[in-house]
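Q: For a teaching session next week I want to show students how multiple molecules come together into a single three-dimensional assembly. I've collected the sequence lines for a complex. Could you give me the predicted structure tokens for the whole thing so I can convert them for display?
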Amino acid sequence: MIIVLKNNADAQKVEELKQTLTGKGFKLHLSQGENTTIIGLIGDTSNISEDWLYAKDVVDSVKRIKEPYKKANRDMHPSDTVVDIGGVKIGGGSFAVIAGPCSVETRPQMIEVAEDVKSSGAQLLRGGAFKPRTSPYSFQGLGSEGLKLLKEAKKATGLPIVTEIMQIGHLDLFEDVDVIQVGTRNMQNFELLKELGKTKKPILLKRGMANTLEELLMSAEYIMAGGNEQVILCERGIRTFETSMRNTLDISAVPMLKKKTHLPVIIDPSHAAGLKFMVEPLTMAAIAAGADGVMIEVHNNPEKALCDGMQSLTPKMFDDLMNKVKKTVPFFGKTMAAQVPVNR
Amino acid sequence: MIIVLKNNADAQKVEELKQTLTGKGFKLHLSQGENTTIIGLIGDTSNISEDWLYAKDVVDSVKRIKEPYKKANRDMHPSDTVVDIGGVKIGGGSFAVIAGPCSVETRPQMIEVAEDVKSSGAQLLRGGAFKPRTSPYSFQGLGSEGLKLLKEAKKATGLPIVTEIMQIGHLDLFEDVDVIQVGTRNMQNFELLKELGKTKKPILLKRGMANTLEELLMSAEYIMAGGNEQVILCERGIRTFETSMRNTLDISAVPMLKKKTHLPVIIDPSHAAGLKFMVEPLTMAAIAAGADGVMIEVHNNPEKALCDGMQSLTPKMFDDLMNKVKKTVPFFGKTMAAQVPVNR
Amino acid sequence: MIIVLKNNADAQKVEELKQTLTGKGFKLHLSQGENTTIIGLIGDTSNISEDWLYAKDVVDSVKRIKEPYKKANRDMHPSDTVVDIGGVKIGGGSFAVIAGPCSVETRPQMIEVAEDVKSSGAQLLRGGAFKPRTSPYSFQGLGSEGLKLLKEAKKATGLPIVTEIMQIGHLDLFEDVDVIQVGTRNMQNFELLKELGKTKKPILLKRGMANTLEELLMSAEYIMAGGNEQVILCERGIRTFETSMRNTLDISAVPMLKKKTHLPVIIDPSHAAGLKFMVEPLTMAAIAAGADGVMIEVHNNPEKALCDGMQSLTPKMFDDLMNKVKKTVPFFGKTMAAQVPVNR
Amino acid sequence: MIIVLKNNADAQKVEELKQTLTGKGFKLHLSQGENTTIIGLIGDTSNISEDWLYAKDVVDSVKRIKEPYKKANRDMHPSDTVVDIGGVKIGGGSFAVIAGPCSVETRPQMIEVAEDVKSSGAQLLRGGAFKPRTSPYSFQGLGSEGLKLLKEAKKATGLPIVTEIMQIGHLDLFEDVDVIQVGTRNMQNFELLKELGKTKKPILLKRGMANTLEELLMSAEYIMAGGNEQVILCERGIRTFETSMRNTLDISAVPMLKKKTHLPVIIDPSHAAGLKFMVEPLTMAAIAAGADGVMIEVHNNPEKALCDGMQSLTPKMFDDLMNKVKKTVPFFGKTMAAQVPVNR
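A: Of course. Below is the structure for the complete assembly, covering every listed component.
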């Protein structure tokens, strides 16, 4: 970390700052220019915030050299992390597809979609039991009843399940869930992240719709700092000024995250665009850009879906898409993860 | 709500849609044009989501005429809601100032700042015990110990206290807190909002840094739908492309919210800009634009503050600011709320 | 277009509005609901702006059913437009690569890069003679001298050339230029667009960094309305809150534009990310998402480049990339455009 | 400027970089840390771009200490610039109001509005002759005929006139115009800015709707570098995700610009919100935040306005607003500029 002092910095205050920093265990490297004095901070600066330094009267500006995340940093862990979900691998060259309805609605719907996506080749089953909805008057998900149906679908098909948690108090209900999803609105729900850091479950962490990639990695760091390093990052579209689609898929997040971190990175094209016809081209773009997986909404009857019908594929459309995915993944040098029935 | 059907809409599917809508209790008003058929939906459309309609094959587009929030809507409640905090009034022409440190650090700090802001005229005391920090390695707040110190400061000064909650599990700890703050990162933590709807405490709801005003009102609606109508809205800067300040204060939110809702609207200039020298001009702009209050960070020693020192005023700077506030509020036709010592 | 009137709309003013609209040649379709009156406007509404209607006291809201662009609209022209540049085809299944340095610097540089990109398989040569730079103190391009060098490179290699115009007054200088580029900062320089509409040259129109896709299409419409329908659209990254890369590539723009318009759509991965290592994955994503071409910066010595060295590939890197492009384009069902030496 | 070198930087390449920089006339200040070498660049760095440095292989990161603008920088020119328009002063404590219709439509309209705004106290008259419209099918302004009508209104009232230029070729037509406006879409039309730098007219430079404040100042620098230091900056709303108003007024731009530059800063509340009812609160906020003026749209018959009727005040509304402005400006310590009839 580099601290540029003000030209007219009060000598005594500079001395105090230097002592404070030394007291925190840093070695200082001073560079006295004609007009500018620069302090180089040597040591682990991840627990120093720029703001804390900017608050000092003598500080003109601060430049972080080293990223503020450690466990998520590829520097510390050059090889890819592979998250293993009962044998289904994501990362390190293994590509997985998570598919299923936006929300769990009924037993027949859930079982039917689960069987359909399994037979098309999906390795993991998704379905929302607790649903974050903008309006209190919208369908809020079936809750614990929904989780039960999801587990029945898991039993029926052997597909591991991925579903979203919305509060710490529900954690007990997620015992048989294979991957716990943190939704875009909870990416900076730090209390939740801390608790998830104490579990041993893989966590699918969605990027907040207006969060930077560094903030996403800091949220992963919350989970990892707690001891759980099984984090899958998910880009699902960011909020911009564009109005013709729900969100703007940040495809560049894939190569940038792959450079910065060893964690697997997947794409959710369904939420990104919010429109069915875009799911295929965005899935192809995700594979081409180097993603480790995709998460796709499939509904046996999108017109009757209680949420997100606009973006849900029919099982037939999903089957067509999977045929393309199976060819495209090896074309870009990755392998489709094997379907591995979980212990029921 | 107006539903525009596709030109070539399948007659049977149109019939099904009409029956579904009638089944939900709506009266339909049909308008058959040469090329376009329009359905006007008459009834309470707040529990119909646009997405659900867009998922229907026969639907071309949807236009909501009526806002999707009801209890927060000024149409339903033309006069201003006044939130009363132990006698301190916010809204309906009464302007209040909430002041205090970003985070509670020590007993002397908290007591000293509390006494300072009281003597300058603040009506409410703020201080963070639970702190949402981007980095897991940053100071996370003193937690329940911080709440205790805050309550001591309340006892010492009689100022009602405002502090942030970060998870439902902490709710019991907030019994003696006068106003519960929901931070920007939790604006769409719907589980938390639902629980707060069951309390009887005034809630200070901060706008998410990338949320629309409609989404803010929908979050207020979550609290109000639960039975708690004491909601204070707070604009605290939104995330844009501009990099010279932390966030971009959306001053237009004040007149727009005042038009759409009866709830009081306050401004947090400290977090908006993140820079001390901007607090005064933004406070003045807030008053001029019609805000019902401001929330300002004050620290007895900003250079030593454990967080947000860059934006914290010294007690002296705050005192100068309050002198201007006291003149400016009546100039724009509002009254400064009275300082009313709360029952200790 | 649908016009929703206010509940309490003054009858006489409504009558006036109806007469104004009828006077403009529209047929009106009225739908009188209990509370709401809706006017459906039948006719060519592309010259009616929503704002003009919103200014009427009796109007509550307006909904456009038909897009405001006509010539660019795929509805009017279902098959793909193929832009033909001296035999090099872009669109309709033909994929072309435009490559070259950010700015023309010297004769040897320009000739060397031109020969390199030609031998790697690029079909078109780019190079900036007039450079839009944020700072007046930065290198502004060689101007007409640069155009001369670019034309020499064209002569030497037979590659058609693409270069940016910055003002109408320079149009004469562009006689031997094969494709005139309108840069991101000039996407809404309507006077320039009008003039370009009078030329017979293919125009490469870059999306403004904060413009919607509809605005991009409206700018294409300016050119087309003037009689020049040879417009190539280019997505080059939009401005968002993300700071780790220069801009955010909006990959969804590809499928969305392909749906809305018949014009070819290309991607500029170099400017989008501003970082060398991202050019390959974003190029692959562009092809996968359905783009008709890419535009890539190549410099024989990026470290010495007078601008944009950070994002420029070396000829060797470009050659490796082209080997992948040549395999990927047919994998996704398109054909590489043939290299066709232009008449020198 | 501070250049941080990579840990493993090649010694010879470092040497080359140092020589290049020395060759450009900089003095270098080296700081050799254990792992990091830092070069401090001493001299005028305004013509060094960060990108050029980032393109060097040995460079890890770059930090600019000094702003890249010189003539616009308050450091170089601590006292406020006062722009004097035939005696009407903007800046340095003098507050001016520019008012008039969005576009010049007819002689009676223009004369009537001009007389109305004059009698209400506006010091300058606005009116668009050349209009930048998103659609080629919208009213494009009366062009040179509109300029003639505007000059007649100037003659009739003595109010100096402000109007927008859209291309260099029109410059001759602007001889009798008192202030030339550069619109938001042309803020980075650098060719136009260079030409305006050669004129002696005051320039009203509007911020691009997605441009940073630094970019705005760099555009002002283009004009000033050409020799014309009479630049008035105008914040008119930026593009964000918020949809309830046209743009988001960045009120913080006022104090931030006042800190960074000596140039006057005005606000355009009409374009910012695009809604009539917001013009007053945003005008008040502008004054409170320290602006040197406002620019307001007034139309004698907003319902019939050919553009922007939604946001245009009637003369009566404007008169009411001016009564408040006249009280509010002195309350915040500024003086209303005098109305000074220009030489006709």
